[in-house]
């Protein structure tokens, strides 16, 4: 009787493993898929090389004037020559270190917040949110400690973009929390209605009309002799607008807190403000941080609209530079550069918010 | 003398100050008073300021002659028209660009969203690249890019980009053939109306029969046949009363046809591309929210893949997709107010811009403009809420 000899193990077929297997699975599974792949490949092959060529290989990077741009590709010399105005606006060049100092310090201050082991996150966060803006304003505006005054009309560029977004967000946060609490207070129908009307009003109108309103109507609302400067008026408009969105985000967080938490706080005999401040809000705000980052991104992109009321943030400065007779016709370069700056900021922030969302997803969802 | 013993059988009456109801009442009265005082203060200031600056009040300006021309108008408009007419022209232009944007953004968004979930690696990566690029760049910048960087650099009318000698694109706009309706075209329109009614009746009948007997009916194919066939038949029978007004190069510019001005073209393009990136994400998360078990259960029941998609996945995904889709439509409508940045004559540009500058009646004009956007938002969200309710899960 012949003994059973097991067949030696065969390697998997070459067409289902390795590079070929991957290609078959991911690019050529079925005729429709293959067709799509070929079409997409054609698109990439025809579009990418000319684009790369324009942006890098035949582009000019160094030079003084438009004469340096003779290679046929992008003229990054334009961006290079105007770089400081794109960053600082009309802020005097000799004083630009103040802007650098403000944002450099902010980065340094914020860096410990990203480390897990750091203990004083709450205190540091509070300092950044409520104390640092005043220091930054003092430094930016000057007039103290022998620093020359720089009018807000001279502020501009990327620093103004960041300032508008940051101040709008920070100022809107407390207002948004109050509005969200008001909207959730079912035992006070009048307050609730007022909050709902306020929130829905600001959410229903475009930011551009809000900016129009703050620039033409706000001066009419104020008593005689009182006037705000252009930047402050825009900031008031942005803050009111943003507070409505912030309120909706915070409301989402309040709704996600289980009812037992509210009831437990009541059972402990805590009053309304202590219940909210000690029990509900710390938990609610923690889960809405990703949402706050998302509204911040939206606001950051929307700050470009202040160009309509005559404030020159980074896009405004680019638009301004494009009207310079020495640099006519470089709009593509200017816009691509600005888009790149915005993209870097927004993309990294959205990735951060997604990461936070995963990290904070600790079972609060019902 | 002994103190009278407290009556322990009755609970002590709590102080009014700690009664939540009383507190809520006081708080609400205080809040109301504060808000009313604030409003009175503002109104008082505004009235004094306007009086001092000699700004007239009221809505009488709407009947005065505007005296400026508007680039694009859907209704007859000239420089002798009133400000009221200006308002209508601006409003219609806003609605036009929003409607175009909503349609295009939905189409692009759904396609990209589905492609993002494709099993094809290359397609998936391209869709992701599209979403991540356009979502993270400000809309205003994109509008500027399409208008100033691309639109201005298009060839002139003589070197226009032509698609089959019927559609022309140059730096003065997009030229497409315009339909000219001949006599008797009304019959075709009537046929279309009849076909729509017939399809609705047919769908009802098919659904009833399906519920009663379980027999399915090829509603989609039959409806398509009715929708296309009946009007076509009438159209041919009445002698094809439709001709096309072709754009043609005459001298330095195109004559005839429909002209899409570059402002409208750039604005629609930017709005659609930007919003489509958000819609694509919405669609992706909606489809992903339908658990894989549903697909498997459908296969186990013996449904064909196309039926699984139509009867199982799409109805459930739509429930998740519709609420965020609504807010994207609202965003698009509100974002169309960026038009004045490139000079497209929408409501904000002609009314809150030119009219405000000429009349100086800031309060009335801004109030009307804001009211219009609030109404548009309200109408869209009411409609989408109604639709959402129809699609919502019907539980026992």
How is this structure best described in words?
The complex is a heterodimer of chains A (366) and B (396). Chain A is built from 13 helices and no strands. Chain A has 366 residues and is an all-alpha fold. Chain A folds into two domains: 95-150, no CATH class; 154-360, Orthogonal Bundle (MetI-like fold). Chain A is globular. In chain A, 30% of the residues are buried. In chain B, strand 1 and strand 2 form a beta hairpin. Chain B has eleven helices and eight strands. Chains A and B meet through helix 2, helix 7, helix 8, helix 11 and helix 12 of A and helix 1, helix 3, helix 4, helix 10 and helix 11 of B.
Judging from the principal axes of the Cα atoms, what is the shape of chain B? extended
Helix segment tally of chain B? 11
Number of strands of chain A: 0
Count of distinct strands of chain B: 8
CATH architecture of one domain in chain B: Orthogonal Bundle
The CATH architecture designation of the largest domain in chain A is Orthogonal Bundle
Order of SSEs of chain A: HHHHHHHHHHHHH
The overall pLDDT of chain B, averaged over residues, is 84
Using only C-alpha atoms, the radius of gyration of chain B works out to: 30 Å
CATH homologous superfamily of the largest domain in chain A - what is it? MetI-like
What order do the helices and strands come in, and which of them pair?
The complex is a heterodimer of chains A (366) and B (396).
Chain A: H1 18-26, H2 30-57, H3 77-88, H4 96-110, H5 121-141, H6 157-184, H7 189-204, H8 207-221, H9 230-256, H10 259-267, H11 272-302, H12 314-322, H13 331-360
Chain B: H1 20-53, H2 83-116, H3 121-135, H4 139-151, E1 161-163, E2 167-170, E3 173-176, E4 178-181, H5 185-213, H6 219-237, E5 242-245, E6 248-250, E7 253-255, E8 258-260, H7 262-289, H8 292-300, H9 305-335, H10 347-359, H11 362-391
Antiparallel strand pairs in B: 1-2, 2-3, 3-8, 4-5, 6-7
Helix pairs in contact in B: 2-3, 2-7, 2-10, 3-7, 4-7, 5-6, 7-9, 8-9, 9-11, 10-11
